[in-house]
Amino acid sequence: MAECGTLRVFENRTTNRGRHIDINFIVLRADRQPAREAVFMFAGGPGGGSTSMAGIANGWARPIRDAWDVVLVDQRGTGKSHPLPCPQGSTTDPAAGFGHIYHPERARACRTGLESDADLTQYTTDTAVQDIDDVRTALGYERIVVYGESYGTRVAQAYMRRYPAQTKAAVIDGVAPFDNGLPLTYAASAQQALDRIFEYCQATRDCHARHPSLAADFASLLRRFDAGPVTTTVTPAGAPPAPVVMSRGDFGYAVRGMLYAASAKDTLPDVIGHAAASGDLSAFAQRYFDRQQSFNRTVALGMHWTVECAEDIPYASDADIAAATANTFLGRYIMDEYRGACAQWPRATLAPDFRAPVSVRVPTLLVSGYFDPVTPPEFADRVARSLPLARTVLSPGTAHGSSAACPRAAVLHVFMTGSLDGLPDVCR
Fold it and tell me: Are residue 134 and residue 149 in the same domain, yes or no?
């Protein structure tokens, strides 16, 4: 049984004055009632609404709902909680979305539009967890288990830090540390994931037979951009192919998007091989276009920028960017795009300890995928070092988001017991 609700809070939780906003949530009730405890699930992005995770609660995590409620709270600025959308590109003019993943002029225009009904500095992670705890209180749960995916792992960690007594346990999948700016690490993490696919293909008989020189094939695609952007096509839904001009940065961003899927280790070699043999880059352009349209539907980019432009981007110097992106297929592209957008966006103020590692006595399971292009396994190891009660699980065949694969039994165990004791031996 699902119950929908809203909780009205002050937008500015420091002054507790001025505009109110409604925080939207869904409670998926346990089969056996009453349930005194619950699992709160937090979506990624930043910018994704957590009510979109109902499919998880009704899918691979369904066993917990025998006795546990599942609560999905749209973080402020996302979903139906005073959302802050900033669409990029165009559905009818695909070429308009290429050249910039975050066009500075669009960011400036979006800021102007949103500021008529939002203080954009009030949509940070720490502010959001205060809303979440208000929802917990209103629903009557004494303690909760928190589950986060990708950026949602930061929300879970922030909640643990601010409300340790209310946190029974945590599971975080695709772990995002506080003490490094994730966009700064995107290029190196994506390069590592791609290199691991090259190694996997070389070690897999059928793949190696089809692509004996996969790394060299990919290098040949990068060289296509040495003389500048390349013209190719995309095919919008229900429309004929349309010409687009794709830069090397656009190409790299498309590859990075493809690396998110666990299937990339099996599918990406064929896409690379076909493009290298035919010279046709349309599959990568299509991926770039489709990812942009998906973000427009599912990610509130205004909230995304509020988080990134306060919590990550300001802490990276030019020297940091040069060092972190050297010898990668993405190079500086993503960091430069974020900097361009953040130059147009107001910067929120953070708590002095916000970027410090979390160190609380909460049983925490940290899940990673070996091929993850954004939150690689070493990030989980890094976060676990500061947590007194932590275990890590590495899923060898997955990428970004691995709880439903071989770690599933361990994840469900923590959900249902709130403990790491007796944790099933998984992913061996």
Answer: yes
